[in-house]
Design goal:
3-stranded mixed β-sheet; 4 domains; metal-binding; HSP40/DNAj peptide-binding domain; single chain; zinc; heat shock protein binding; alpha+beta
């Protein structure tokens, strides 16, 4: 069972943003990899603290966590772009929170050179974005997709050497005379982009950064309940970056829903238009209709009215955060024939004034506008 985020940082639920940030910085420095080399337990605590801070420092995520606990982020990807309570990795931690460490570790360079204080840094490759088309059935059950992705990787045989411009430091220092005296500033080296290395040998076919385009099959696990436009992240499957020990970018997976032939989605609910004849409406009976995982049989009561909505509980789509399933709403439409035979016309002519055929809605019958209001409330 996952630890409570407030307990990890050593703060209570009433702590404000400043207190949460201060507590995280204290924990991050205590368990920083530079201070605890080779200590796996310290590394895990460092990651736990970053995960807790990532949630509690965000007002929306904090509110969800306070209400639902860890279940608020059990959807796995959590909508893409962020850790969302998932397992953190060092590259993401230092790229997102490195500035919090200040000058505690080598001017903010931190683990592997990340951080906000300059110095040699590891360069992250560019992210890639792809669209994945899903059916209603895929969304209902969750699915694993194997996608071919073209990504840039370092060419075999490429080598690097220390950047002569910055002597491997990753930064250059400039001194300028100002009205306040001589000012010294440091900025990332333009020759090596702050990595401290430049390419020494470029293999045939590689680009100016020593990278080649490679096609790779990536397996993507998509949880049940995702929706159109949602973005999932597969860490480390984007383009690689030039240089030694640099970090590959991420693969961002954008969800695209394929339209179902008969089912229409509205959040976690599904809608189905059922057309029945005059005879079926008058006599009642049963009908078989499409549901998300096959077909289901529903009962029609005698004298069912057009516009009636039958709600099948739990037959909709699952919640991404595991809060149960939506419903399947069946909209009954009585089909009026456009052409009648001589005998049929004679029958209906004889029934026009029949008391049993006169509209007589009871008070319990809801109007169209009441049904629409109820559906959207």
């Amino acid at each position: 069972m996952k630890k409570d985020y407030y307990e990890i940082l050593g703060v209570d639920k009433s702590a404000d943003a400043a207190a949460i940030k201060k507590a995280y910085r204290k924990k991050a420095i205590e368990f920083h990899p530079d201070k605890n080399p080779g200590d796996k337990e310290a590394e895990e605590k460092f990651k736990e603290a970053a995960e807790a801070y990532e949630v509690l420092s965000d007002a929306d995520k904090k509110a969800k966590y306070d209400q639902y606990g860890h279940a608020a982020f059990d959807g796995g990807f959590g909508g893409g772009g962020g850790f969302g309570g998932g397992h953190m990795n060092m590259d993401d931690i230092f790229s997102q929170f490195g500035d919090i460490f200040g000058g505690a570790f080598g001017g903010g360079g931190g683990f592997g050179g990340f951080g906000g204080g300059g110095g040699q840094r590891r360069v992250k490759g560019a992210n890639l974005r792809i669209k994945v088309k899903l059916t209603i059935e895929d969304i209902a059950n969750g699915v694993e997709k194997k996608i071919k992705v073209k990504r840039k990787v370092q060419a075999q045989g490429v080598t690097y050497k220390t950047c002569p411009t910055c002597n491997g430091s990753g930064q250059v220092t400039k001194i300028a005379n100002t009205v306040f005296g001589r000012m010294q500033t440091a900025s990332p080296c333009g020759a090596c982009h702050g990595s401290g290395q430049i390419m020494d040998h470029k293999p045939a076919g590689a680009d100016a950064d020593g990278l080649i385009l490679n096609e790779e099959t990536v397996s993507i696990k998509i949880p049940a309940g995702v929706s159109e436009g949602m973005q999932l992240k597969v860490s480390g499957k984007g383009n690689e970056a030039p240089g030694k020990n640099n970090v590959p970018g991420d693969l961002l997976v954008v969800i695209e829903e394929l339209e179902h032939e008969t089912l229409k989605r509205e959040g976690e609910n599904l809608h189905y238009d059922l057309y029945i004849s005059f005879a079926e409406a008058a006599l009642g009976g049963s009908k078989e209709i499409d549901a998300v995982n096959g077909r289901v049989r529903i009962k029609l009561e005698e004298g069912i009215q057009s516009g009636k909505i039958l709600r099948l509980k739990g037959k909709g789509l699952p919640s991404l955060n595991s809060y149960g399933n939506g419903d399947l709403l069946v909209h009954v439409n009585v089909w009026t024939p456009k052409k009648l035979t001589k005998e049929q016309r004679a029958f209906f002519e004889s029934m026009k004034e029949d008391e049993n055929f006169q509209p007589a809605p009871s008070k319990s019958e809801k109007s169209f506008f009441e049904k629409v209001k109820e559906m959207f409330s």
